[in-house]
Amino acid sequence: MKRYFSVILLISCFVQLVKAEVVLPAIFSNGMVLQQKENVKFWGKARPNVNLVITTSWNNKTITVKTGADGNWRSNVNTPVAGGPYTIILNDGNKLILSDVLIGEVWVCSGQSNMEMPVKGFANQPVLGANDILLDAEEAGVRLFRIEKNLSRLPIEKISSKWEVSSSKSVSEFSAVGYQFARFLQHNLKVPIGIIQTAYGGTDIEAWMTKNSLAGFSDFKNPSDTAKIIKNDPAVLFNAMVNPIIGYQIKGVIWYQGENNRVNPLTYDRKMAAMVKEWRALWEAGNWPFYYVQIAPNVYKDHKEDIPLLYEAQARAMSLIENSGMVVSVDAGSQKTIHPPNKTIIAKRLAYWALAKNYNREAIAYLGPIYKSLKIEGEKAILNFEQIPLGLTAYDQKLIGFEIAGSDKIFIPADAVITGKTVVVKSEQVKNPMAVRYCFKDSAVGNLYNVEGLPLGPFRTDKWE
């Protein structure tokens, strides 16, 4: 009898194996968007040691790939110019049909709570214009893929997310920055846009990095593998929320994170560079663009003095990360919440970078003024800038956010005026100025722009402690 049941079990397993359907990662599913004009990677599981046939409806061509003894397989599929919907048939003896597949542009949005913040907002924390955003959400050309929050000590591959069409319901739950970025691209490019959200509030950059990319850094907690897992342990978010989509062809990444790293700001630029380098290497898709947001002003409860150092580190990262760009948000913060409500201006500024740098939209400005040099003339400190081809403006408002100091290194609020393409800063209390700072505090708000409407970021002319 025992042998009988063993035989039945063996036959049952064999039947299940023969009937096994093609299994794909969640990112490959109905309604997905594939990156246009690329040789995109496909992978999954099927029956072992058989020929898997992949047929794409946009050209009716077939690709045959031999599955391994474990059923695993990998292949590549050439995608056409943007369009759709299409179908993809995968056949290992049993057909799996992917329907409603669009070809277009695919981006990832990642980071902590300011990227996670959905269009509907958080408790007592609104997104500006949320209802109007939802009124405009019925857009067939935008598809959403939101990865659920998860943690893992080891890299995992399975997630339960799915592609969703853009609707008021799906958009309300999706990243306000990520969705609007996708919507701006779709509106301008007139092609389908896929946006993949992988974000988790209150998290350190170290959690989004691999153990490999963290080599050489020591200013973070590294618990034992047997300790209770928490969301800020090194690599746990990469393992659970990035690794499952590694290899899915993308155009680029937008990133909004940093508030949590105010406790160790001096290495943030190098960590971000190490993270991006490792992600790109694992993706094996070249140096895709990486656009990120400098954190916004806020009245922080702790580590207030470290916020300006984080501003500096984020600004430095642009020179460390090839094909990157930073959005300044010094004019779009909040004194009451770490989650500023105006997510539209942030998404739009991220879109400026992508449209100008990656989609060849001419005459679109994407970079605000950058401090260049300081000249002292008597009681005046004269500031010069780059990235101001047409000059500077404060839109008829009095300039704010400037401070000046003499040899005593005590900074006090200063008067500042635009003079041609320079800003002249002075104070009656400082007769012999030596240094100027702009919005170099956690809560300081700025209002100086280039004529194209992009803001100057926080900076200082000194190197004082």
Automatic annotation (TrEMBL):
GO molecular function ontology, one term from the record: sialate O-acetylesterase activity
Coiled-coil segments on the chain, per record: none
GO BP annotations, alphabetical order: carbohydrate metabolic process
Sialate O-acetylesterase domain boundaries: 105-333
A Pfam family per the record: SASA
Keywords: Hydrolase, Signal
Gene3D superfamilies referenced in this protein's UniProt entry, alphabetically: Immunoglobulins (2.60.40.10), SGNH hydrolase (3.40.50.1110)
Signal peptide: 1-20
Stated name of the protein: Sialate O-acetylesterase
